[in-house]
Amino acid sequence: MSGGTYYVPASSKWPALASLAMGAMMAGTGTLLVYGIAGLPVMVVGLLAILAVMTLWFRDVIHESRSGLYDAQMDRSFRWGMGWFIFSEVMFFAAFFGTLFYVRTFALPWLDGEGAKGVAALLWPDFTASWPLMDPPDAAIEGPHETFSPWHLPLVNTLILVSSSITLTVAHEGLKEGYRETARHWLLGTVLLGLCFITIQGFEYYEAYSHYGITLQAGIYGATFFLLTGFHGLHVIIGTIILISILVRVQRGHFSRDDHFGFEAAAWYWHFVDVVWIGLFTFVYVF
C-alpha cells in the first residue's frame, strides 16, 4: 500500500497455546477410548484449556477492534482468513464423508464377493453386504441392535438447525438495517436453538448406547456414525459458544450497520455447520 499504512497485529501466543490445548484434549480422548477412565483427566484439562484460550483470544481481538486499530486491509484479511478456514472445514468433513462412501460403495461389496477385489470374500464366505451393517463379518464384533428412525429425533434436529439459520439471517439483516433489538432477540433465538440441538444430540447418544447397541465398538456402522455426528456436534458446540460471545457484544453495543464482520464470520460458520448436518441427515440417517 503506497502512501498509506495498516495495522499489523502484534505477535500472539494464542495459536500455539490453542494447538497445545487441542492436542492435550485429543490425547486424553484417545486414551479414554482405548484405556478407559485414565484418559479422562487429560481430556478435561485439554477441554478447559481450549475454552480458556478461546475466551482470552476473543478478548484480545475484540479489544483491538474496539480500539479502532483495524482498517479496510485488516477487514479483507479477516474475510480471506475466515474463507480459507471454512474451506479447510469443508475438506475435513469431506474426508469423513469419503470414508462413509468408500465403505458403503467399495469395501462391503468386495467382502461380499463383488467387484475387482471380490476375492476378499474368502475372508468371511458367509458375509452378506448390507447397510446399515447390523452383522459385521467378524463374529467377535457385535453390531447394533437397531438403527435410529430418521423421522424422529434426527428430523427434529434438522428442523431446529434449519430454523436456526433462518433466525440468524433475520438477526443479521436486522443488524445491517440498524435494528439492534431485532438483532439481539433473533440472535438469542439462534443460541437457544443451538442449545436445543446439543441437548437432543446428547439424548440421542444416550439412547444409542443404552437401547440401540450403537457404540464405537459396533463395527463400521457405529464407528462412522459417531465419527460424523460427533465431530459435527463438536462444531455445533463451538458455534454456539461463538454466537453467545457475539450476543454479548450486540448487547454491549459493539457492531454497527457497516462494521460487524465478527457477527458475519460467526454467521458464515453457523450456516456451514447447518449445511453439513443436511448431508449427515441424508447419508447417515435416511440413506
TrEMBL record:
Top-level EC class: translocase
UniProt GO BP: aerobic electron transport chain
Superkingdom of origin organism: Bacteria
Transmembrane segments: 32-58, 78-103, 183-203, 223-248, 268-286
InterPro entries tied to this protein: Cyt_c/ubiquinol_Oxase_su3, Cyt_c_oxase_su3_dom, Cyt_c_oxidase-like_su3, Cyt_c_oxidase_su3-like_sf, Cyt_c_oxidase_su3_a-hlx
Subcellular location, record wording: Cell membrane; Membrane
Magnesium among keywords: no
UniProt name for this protein: cytochrome-c oxidase
